[in-house]
Amino acid sequence: MIPTSLPDSLIATLPGSSYTDPGGFAQEQEHIFETMWFCAVRSSELATPGAFRTVEVGRESILITRARDNSVRAFFNVCRHRGARLCAEEAGEVKRAFQCPYHAWTYDLNGKLVAAPNLTKMPDVGRTEFGLVGVATREWLGYVWVCLAENPPSFEEDVIGEVITRLGDVEAIEHYGIGDLAVGRRIVYDVRANWKLIVENFMECYHCATIHPELTEVLPEFADGYAAQYYVGHGAEFGEEVQGFTVDGSEGLDRIPGVPDDQDRRYYAITVKPQVFINLVPDHVIFHRMYPVAADRTIVECDWLYLPHVVESGKDVSRSVELFDRVNRQDFDACERTQPGMSSRMYAEGGVLVPSEHHIAAFHDWVNERLGTPRPQ
Ligand code: FES
Ligand code: FE
């Protein structure tokens, strides 16, 4: 059992049940993922009008598409007639409209109800009134962000503001021109762990010396097991012998032209709550999005983004992909190793954080605040 009074240098974690309880997870879905801005899909997946993707945001299925005027639209993926799921596919393309497979109500790309069998005999069915219910959208960094809240919080404050807090200013990320980069590789990880274990892992580098041999070769300052990834706003320097951010430290790909000299040969890692992690290196950007699906399961979609000509020319990106793919697998293994312990009675009251993990305590306070359950003093 954890002693009731901890030494000053240690801080208690959340209790084990916070990582296993389905009721608590539903609360997080409601008060975090269905309330905040959520990074849903890469804009380039909706290249033309009618292209669509469906994603799970909190407990809702959301249909995201591009309208004729090229704007992005997102809707609850629920038919207004009797509630059938409108689109079952994860991705696809329609010509002009979405037709419900149940009774054939048909909605245009703006969500307006444009056809329904025998609609003329049902004059009280308003075509606008019974259109799909929309959710707020925003495009930034080449991704579509959605917000299910009736009154969405300020994107500038909550999303862009958080990036500024991590990096000092917004230019530090804009130099990479992330919206204009192309997806060189996408890997989807099915992680059998609670989403908070994944966030906590990303926030600390106390584990780097133990589980990340390749990463610590490239970034020697991570080898002392102390550097906090969450706070590498200064950028961790590549080792002297290292040529590029690759699995063997060999040369990388073409440097993104906007990256200034003082950001060259450096690695930046930032989290944008609640579900985005971004890594910036001179020749590519690694962009992770988490989709929490159960208390003990999280899907992580990770894109490796390069200059478009690098991808189009078919250059070999595998050595740079392999570095962070290994890091991801090492991290997710650690999270999966931790998940069963969360239901042990030994962990009912939680564990402890060492001083270099103090920002995880701030994350726990933030979660508690969102759920309206402040940490007992
Ligand atoms: Fe969709 Fe009836 S439920 S048309
Ligand atoms: Fe790690």
Automatic annotation (TrEMBL):
The keyword Lipoprotein does not apply. InterPro entries: Rieske_2Fe-2S, Rieske_2Fe-2S_sf, Ring_hydroxy_dOase_asu_C_dom, Rng_hydr_dOase-A. PANTHER family: CHOLINE MONOOXYGENASE, CHLOROPLASTIC. The keyword Oxidoreductase applies. One of its GO terms (molecular function) is monooxygenase activity. This is 2Fe-2S ferredoxin. It comes from the Bacteria. CDD domains: RHO_alpha_C_GbcA-like, Rieske_RO_Alpha_N. Keywords: 2Fe-2S, Iron, Iron-sulfur, Metal-binding, Oxidoreductase.
